[in-house]
Amino acid sequence: MDNNADVIYRMLVQSVMDYAITMLKPDGTVASWNPGGQRTLGYTADEIIGRSVILLYSEEDRRRGLPQRGLDLAATAGQYETEGWRYRKDGSAFWAHEVINPMRSDAGQLVGYAQIIRDCTRQQEHQRKEREQEARFRLLVEGVTDYAIYMLDHDAT
Q: What average pLDDT values come out for the chain (157 residues) when binned by 10 residues?
């Protein structure tokens, strides 16, 4: 990229506030952090750069090796995409959609990863409520034995 393209790219990444956009070193150490990362996860760039990405995962996920497995899968498959609980600096949990892509040199050597994390807690909560309503409706319908219940579409067919 020429210098102008570099500046435009940096401006783009820095202006995204709804997504944490990070670059990780091959070992999972945070190398860059956008303002969306601070908004989503609570860490300033100075607090997180140089630290391991495992800070964002639960103790259980760490024991299971999930952070490293995600990096390994991204390196071998070309991308790793998942959803799960991630943790903010203050310890609060949120439901995250995470994508990790390997970054390679022109010679094909792994030089790091691009990671994007989005807080999807509201969507997850909405889906959970829909599943609960559907389950309650199913219980109600299945519990009716003395009457016939019909469902009609908008054309009454």
A: 69 72 97 95 97 96 96 97 96 96 97 96 66 64 68 65
Farthest-apart Cα atoms in the chain, separation: 76
Per the document, the length of the chain is 157
Given a contact cutoff of 8 angstroms between Cβ atoms, the answer to whether 113 and 98 are in contact is no
Q: Of 122, 120, 115, whose CA–CA distance to 54 is shortest?
A: 115
Residue in the block written with tokens 């609980």: 85
The Cα 134–Cα 129 span in angstroms is 9
Taking CA atoms, 135 is separated from 116, 123, 128, 149, in Å, by 34, 18, 11, 17
- For residues 78-107, one letter each, b for 16 or more C-beta atoms within 10 angstroms of the residue's C-beta and e for the rest, the string is eebeeeeebbeeeeeebbbbbbbbbbeeee
